[in-house]
Amino acid sequence: MQLPELTDSSPTVASSTGWLAGIAHEISPNFGSRPAGVLIDTVIVHSISLPPGQFGGMEVHDLFLNRLNWQAHPYYQQIQGIAVSAHFFIRRTGQVTQFVSCEDRAWHAGISHFQGRDNCNDFSIGIELEGLEGDAFEPAQYARLADLLQQLRQTYPIDYVVGHEHVAPGRKNDPGVGFDWRRLQATVAWPLQCFPVLSNLSQV
Q: Which of 41, 147, 171, 195 is 20 to 30 Å from 14 at the Cα level?
């Protein structure tokens, strides 16, 4: 099924529910409540593929929904039993699925620190791109990510867009050197200050 494209006229994320209209929803059990009064001001960009470097299957969905067959591939033995999620997953084609309400705390950043704050899951929205860290991403993913950022910013005061590697340096390397931050900044047309990796404002 062809999903509708996100545009400036698309429905925004409903602040009462945290779900974006016009895209597929699959509800992950891996989430929790955000701290009371927290300001959701950061988007963290990740990359993921299962098995690594293989695209187009349902394995990432299965991981976020706690139904991945750990015996299906040798790599899965390394991650067996983990419970993770992201708010959004963008495939190579640009198709988007939402797994966790933006009002809730998805489990995507782990041990992390940004702008003087620990536990980035508390104040961030996690977006996973289908891809292998260090490799290039597809034009459709940049376009869809930019549209999604615009929609999120109509509901939440998003001030920063960073990579997982920037909030967990030394522990995580995604999305990696293949991700073109300048392209994303130009596409979304936000100030450089929103992209610490470009503006040298990162405090991680």
A: 195
**Cβ–Cβ under 8 Å, residues 159 and 41:** yes
Name the nearest CA neighbour of 60 among 23, 28, 20: 28
Kindly give the parts of the chain with pLDDT less than 70. 1-11, 200-204
**Are 142 and 129 a contacting pair, CB within 8 Å?**
no
26 is catalytic: no
So what's the pLDDT on residue 8? 41
Choosing among 1.10.10.10, 3.40.80.10, 3.40.1480.10, 3.40.462.10, the CATH entry for 33-199 is: 3.40.80.10
Q: Which residues contact 54 (CB under 8 A, 6 or more apart)?
A: none
Find all residues with CB under 8 Å of 110, minimum gap 6, and list them: 121, 168, 171, 172
Name the active-site residue from 59, 128, 130, 133: 128
Kindly state the tokens that stand for 44. 């963290």
